[in-house]
Amino acid sequence: MSKKIERIEEQLIHEIKAGTTLIFIETQEEDETVRILKNVAEVFNKGLSGTDILQEDQNLLEDEGLAQMATESRFGSDSADRNSSTMIDKIKALANKGDTEGTDTIYLFKDIPALLRSEAGRTIDTNTIVNATRIFKTLNKTLRKDKSALVILGLTYDLPKELDNDFKVLYHSVPDIDLLEKIFYDYIADSPLLDAVEKTAKTTIDEILRSAKGLTADQFRRCIASTFIKHQEIGAKTIDDILRIKKEIIQKDGMLEYVEEEVGFENVGGLNNLKEWAKKRKKAFSKEAEQAGLTTPTGILVWGVPGSGKSLISKAISGIWKRPILRFDIGRIFGSYVGESEKNMRNALRRAESIAPCILWIDEIEKAFSSADRGSEVSNRVLGTFLTWMQEKAQSENVFIVATANDVTLLPPELLRKGRFNQLFFVGEPNEEALKEIIAIQLEKHKLDKNNYDIERLGMVAAKKKLTGSEIEQVIIDAQFNAYYDREDPPNDDEIIVEMKAIQKPIATYFLDRIQDDEEKKRKYADVDLMSIDA
Fold first, then answer.
1. Which among 54, 11, 55 has a CA at the least distance from the CA of 149?
2. Of 124, 145, 440, 499, which has fewest CB within 10 angstroms of its CB?
3. C-alpha span between 452 and 312 (Å, rounded)
4. Which helix (H) or strand (E) holds 385?
């Protein structure tokens, strides 16, 4: 979390001072949030009463004078809705309580979002939702009169849409570096871990804290304990364990994919301008660069001919910068329920923030946002969520975006405007020199000695055919299979050239023909081309 962003405790104090009565806190760690609510209640000398689906009302501050919430069931007798009815009845009792009952209280409810949410395989009685909505609206007046507030905890805000203007939504983010440091030293105090930490270099401790950014407090504590039990030390292996936990978190979500393939610029043929741009910004994320006044890069859009190395260069930037890369398939976020797609987008972006510093690779971005330019309401809302995040959070949270696109003419103009990305790079068909590099790289990749081949001749034929990198790779693979079938030997130059000439219409030719045949695409292509530089 950026130091510029208020901690949740500060936000809560501000909202209570301002007289906010209905608050929803998005949180991944309930216990930490409850602890903070206790602190806030004590600051204002208020009571704190809480309940969830399994428990009777709890006096969380052990204040004998705090009024308990009524639990009498008032509506809904069906067994499937009994739990939701009971919970909502408790809230209804607050709305109907008399003037002599408890005031100056923070009422805490858990599990409400899950009880009011319809999803696959489960529906909620409409009457329950309507009643709950009206109860919350009535509560606004009652709580304001009593100088009290109601707080709901949930993973994401997911209440009926009619309540959007009634609730203040706060986000309890995972700990920042400073808080992680406090959690770390508080946890190891007076424990066997203390001796192990004293033997660990301060630079290693700092690296552990940086790598832990994105974990909840509880996850961090468990990781420290686990790594000590396994290795009897706190050091480099602790960092490996933290990264393993982060990968597991990403895999559980399903929205992002942790890409582990190691790629460097030596694995990418051509694209020299893009390589040079990335090299010059490798140091731009350091504290020293920030102190020198450098603006932290936020992202690039790489577009052009399919199969020309856009995905590969994304991974290579990750390798050069030594940052984890997360592949974001935006198509996965679109859901069938109202508001679900925007919620999924927010969750995915927050997950990227939690892994930061990292690279967020959005492959074929036009597939997700092309309909936004044609008036799709859902796509427009999702695009708006993404653009707001790019503007406000990507830089401060140290997430660098690499977006790739084949058909840039499908993207909405607001995504392409000046300043949205640091730079737009066009990737066309590789020139002859780039093709020679690509051929050498692909021969080595497929365990063929490049010194046994006439790279100059192969490059010249490939350039004449206007082949791309992906086509070169497939040519070599096909030549290998044919040569192995014929004589169980590697292919020779002539056999590779036969495969090159077998390609009737290379993808680069097809790509450009499609643009030339469509006047609107041709105009848009020319506009974006003027904003871009050759990769």
1. 11
2. 145
3. 26
4. helix 377-392
* Helical residues (DSSP H) of 61-176, grouped into ranges: 82-96, 112-115, 126-145
- Which residue shows structure tokens 């600051």? 43
Residue with tokens 């044609």: 374
Cα separation, 318 vs 326, whole angstroms? 10
Phi, psi of 25 (to 5 degrees): -110, 115
Q: Which domains does the chain have, with CATH numbers?
A: 8-172 (3.40.50), 177-253 (no CATH), 259-427 (3.40.50.300), 432-505 (1.10.8)
Whole-structure pTM value? 0.72
Distance CA 301, CA 414 (A): 13
Listed residue (124, 136, 104, 129) closest to 24, CA to CA = 136
> How is residue 323 written in tokens?
């940052």
The H-or-E segment that residue 328 falls in is strand 325-328
DSSP at 122: B
Task: Reduce the DSSP state of residue 470 to 3 states and report it.
Answer: helix
Whole-angstrom CA distances from 189 to 70, 175, 177, 212, 266 are 42, 19, 18, 19, 47
- 90 with 82: CB under 8 angstroms? no
- Residue 154 to residue 156: CA distance in whole angstroms: 5
pLDDT of 265-284, one tens digit each?
Answer: 888 988 999 999 999 998 88
Structural contact between residues 60 and 108, judged by C-beta atoms closer than 8 angstroms: yes
| Residues 183-196: tens digit of each pLDDT | 888 888 877 777 77
Per-residue pLDDT reduced to its tens digit, 383-406: 888 888 888 776 667 889 999 999
Q: Residue 68, exposed/middle/buried by CB under 10 A (0-12, 13-18, 19+)?
A: middle
